[in-house]
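Good morning,

Attaching, inline, the backbone tokens for the sequence recovery test we're adding to the shared suite. The designed sequence is right after.
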């Protein structure tokens, strides 16, 4: 184990491995319980969901290895979907045909607190770059704008 890797914890209300911590917490909205799954490098939980009451109907059911593994799988899927959604928001592409040539035009937006940037890239079927231009992050990429750009000889769009 690495020096800054936390030791595993296996308690009724806290369970962790080298990447994740599950923490059973009192649900602020009612008398029930919730579980928060936090990736060790993050300050906020990736997943917070309801947790089962124990047999006494007052205290939470204790965490165990099976429940923890299920929670890790679910939280990992939430993060993966979030990353996919962010990627889709920042990367768009369309395919157009110009003079019988199939061209893939990609808009890539790079977020930045001081001002996002964006670029268009055109490639042929073999992945060879045909054109590149800086554009506004608000540039609307669609078949018409891609076709206009390609027909202009990949001049910087206005």
């Amino acid at each position: 184990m690495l020096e800054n890797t936390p030791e595993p914890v296996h308690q009724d209300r806290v369970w962790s491995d080298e990447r994740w911590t599950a923490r059973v917490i009192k649900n602020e909205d009612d008398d029930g319980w919730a579980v928060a799954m936090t990736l060790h490098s993050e300050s906020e939980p990736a997943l917070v969901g309801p947790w089962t009451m124990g047999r006494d109907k007052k205290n939470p059911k204790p965490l165990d290895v099976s429940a923890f593994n299920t929670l890790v799988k679910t939280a990992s899927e939430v993060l993966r979907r979030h990353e996919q959604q962010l990627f889709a928001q920042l990367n768009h592409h369309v395919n157009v045909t110009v003079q019988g040539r199939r061209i893939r035009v990609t808009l890539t937006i790079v977020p930045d607190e001081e001002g996002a940037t964006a670029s268009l890239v055109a490639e042929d079927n073999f992945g060879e770059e045909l054109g590149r231009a800086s554009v506004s992050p608000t540039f609307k990429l669609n078949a018409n704008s891609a076709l206009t750009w390609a027909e202009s000889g990949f001049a910087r769009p206005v």
